[in-house]
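Suppose you are handed a protein chain with no further information: no name, no annotation, nothing but its sequence. What can you learn? This example shows the usual starting point.
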Amino acid sequence: MEKLIISPSPHIHSGDTVERNMYAVLLALIPACLVSIAQFGLGALVVLSVAVGVCVLAEWLIVKYIMKSEVTITDGSAALTGILLGMNLPSNLPVWIIAIGALVAIGVGKMSFGGLGGNIFNPALVGRVFLLIAYPAQMTIWPEAGQLTSYTDATTGATPLGIMKGVINSALGASWDQLPSSIDMLLGVHGGSLGEVSALALLLGLAYLLYKRVITWHIPVSILVSAFTLGGLMYLTNPDIYPAPWFHLLTGGMLLGAVFMATDYVTSPMSKRGQLIYGCLIGILTVAIRLFGAYPEGMSFAILIMNAFTPLINMYVKPKHFGGK
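A reasonable first move is to predict its three-dimensional structure. Written in structure tokens, the prediction is:
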């Protein structure tokens, strides 16, 4: 007898395909990629190229020779993982470390769970956090912006979040005067990873994804509002130590994570109310880690923590059954 196999919900037919959504997100990332290449030149191009190339190759090899199933690298998901991983890395990172991060992202973060749709954590963040733990020295050296020809010998400096951490911890020489202006942070004229340098480019990507209805506003807006609220409360308690609330929105991986990583279909809640809870907790955790944790940035850890809670949110935060009370 023929078996009827029902895939996981939702079961609404809308004409969307995996390929359409993946390539839409890749298009939305173009402004941020162009800004990162304009700011860091050859280094940014090398990081993005190696990350994408190794991710696509690793998925092809695993699917074809280990899983022995149909190759699906043309759906864009492996390339998207590579781009997002690259956007979370400094532009002077050695090629072999980038390759290791890409292998971990695909091999451990994605394919070990069965491939796209089965992973419980965002693969790019799995690769990024692994590299941060395994190679902390290389992962926390940030080239200054505007070095178009240098790569491994780039001049390095503190990021805005690093300066903030120095002020909070009363580090010698740390001062709010060292921060770039809000305009520079909006345009991306400061050091950092490839994806945290231009808030404006990431906002353009957000507008495109909302226009194409690839994502909804619930997760990114709830993340930004909760981060702004907690950051504002801490600023009001002691403005000499804690930065203004808009600082948290314009720096680090806040916008990259809120727009492109927390909204991942597979690892985020399905219901709108669940997405609001998920987003609010990511924003709160991110600011809490930034202000009180050992790391100056907390977006990656916050998203991965909430990825683990997504099944619980899906279980207890459900829409009413059709026709139910």
